[in-house]
Design brief:
By secondary structure, the chain is of the alpha/beta class. The chain folds into three domains: about 80 residues, Winged helix-like DNA-binding domain superfamily/Winged helix DNA-binding domain (Arc Repressor Mutant, subunit A, Orthogonal Bundle); about 100 residues, D-Maltodextrin-Binding Protein, domain 2 (3-Layer(aba) Sandwich); about 100 residues, D-Maltodextrin-Binding Protein, domain 2, CATH 3.40.190. It is built from eleven helices and 14 strands. The strands form four sheets. The chain has a five-stranded mixed β-sheet with strand order 6-4-7-14-8. Strand 1 and strand 2 form a beta hairpin. Helix 1 crosses helix 3 and helix 5 runs antiparallel to helix 11. The chain is elongated, with a radius of gyration of 30 Å. This is LysR family transcriptional regulator. Belongs to the LysR transcriptional regulatory family.
Length: about 290
Amino acid sequence: MNTQQLQCFLYVADRLSFTKAADDLYLSVPTVTHHIKSLEEELNTKLFFRTRQIVRLTEAGTIFYEDAKEIFNKIMFTQQRLQDIAKQELKFLTIGCSSNYELEELTDAVTAIHQEFPRLRCPFTITDPFTLRHLFESGQLHLILSSYTASKDIKDCSFQKIKTFQNYALVPPEHKLWEKAEITLEELKGHCIITLHPRLIPFYTDQKLQKYLLFHVQDHADLICENEAVSMLMAKCGYGVCVLPDILIPSDLKDLKVLPIRDVQKLDYGITFRHNNMEQQIQYFLDYFK
């Protein structure tokens, strides 16, 4: 089935005339007839009832008409989009991160790169660190934002630091720790800790905090959540203390107090990119954060 077959079918169906369809398509009647016949053979059904005096759609032709119209229009729309992209010479810089809140780090940079490269588009992918890594390694992402820990062993890549980040304890107003300005891991003992899934913890914590969280969950009724949004919701609802890195905490967070955890290390956060793909727009993006 091809576009010319579909077009001939639609023209004949709309005009109920092979002659008028041929005239409007600037084709010969035998050519239109050939396309209709080949389409019918491919579908193994008659689409038109035809005599010398009349042309009308069969029941199968009537059913096929709407589908054929939708298929043909989608093909035409897709072809037009691709042609427009080719004419505009659009380029794409695909970027991945693991949280909506990380997008706050990128607003100014993306604004600047859009002004410098008006024909550049920056599609974003937001997913977990494991999937980000897979997409990056398979070439589907140009850049990923992550901790150094998450990307340090990816081959043929470099890491450009943007900032350091640290982990915080998020507590609701009624919690015993609310009056604190900062806390230690020792002060978390005995409290229900709300944390990310263990498979995600290594990407966001130093080794000391990793061990603490993994051992703490074995001895207490801690809550394990699939993402940071659920973790913060559980803390707001009074289930316990949420432990998260600041890169996953919104700047306008309400109803929770953010307490630094004093005795854990800060970690590097930045951009991972390939050595062999230093196009002008990628270099510009990296330079923006220097």
